Amino acid sequence: MISEKLQNAINEQITAEMWSSNLYLSMSFYLQKEGFDGFASWMRKQSQEELQHAYDLADYLVKRGGAAKVDKIDVVPQGWGSVQEVFEHVYKHECHVSSLIDELVNVASEVKDKASQDFLWGYVREQVEEEATAQNIVEKLRKCGDVAGILYLDDKLGQRK
Question: Structure pTM?
């Protein structure tokens, strides 16, 4: 049985993951409107991944005898600026999500729930990859000297499976 404190913390993370999904979906719509179909596709897949995290966290709570809850999801930003600014925001957001996951692990440790610690460490490892991926895209965008470079990267990111 999962503790109430950890259950509440995981439910807050479910809400955060759903907000992240909406954030990336908003970015996808913006990028598509701006004519960057590859970046938009990449962002849509990112949105789906965040929503899957919410589902997985909810499933975990149920397995442990807890109750998953859907809370209010705040409105996400709508305007983004350049492609580079969009991905700089993605990087900052992934760093923020990493801090949220770290705090979840701390709560699991505090309540001495080793099963939850083990489950959550998977997210810690994933966040290392998410931050690195976003940072790599930002660095590549910084190196793009012209529109042709950005369009090439748009095409490459659009190939994400």
Answer: 0.94
| DSSP character string of 40-80 | HHHHHHHHHHHHHHHHHHHHHHHHTT--------PPPP---
Do residues 139 and 37 touch, judged by C-beta distance below 8 A?
Answer: no
| pLDDT exceeds 80 at position 145 | no
Cβ contacts of residue 51 below 8 Å, gap of 6+? 17, 18, 21
pLDDT tens, position by position, 31-41: 999 999 999 99
List all residues 6 or more positions away from 62 whose beta carbon is below 8 Å from its beta carbon: 68
Residue 158 phi/psi, 5-degree rounding, is -65, -15
Q: Is the pLDDT of residue 27 over 90?
A: yes
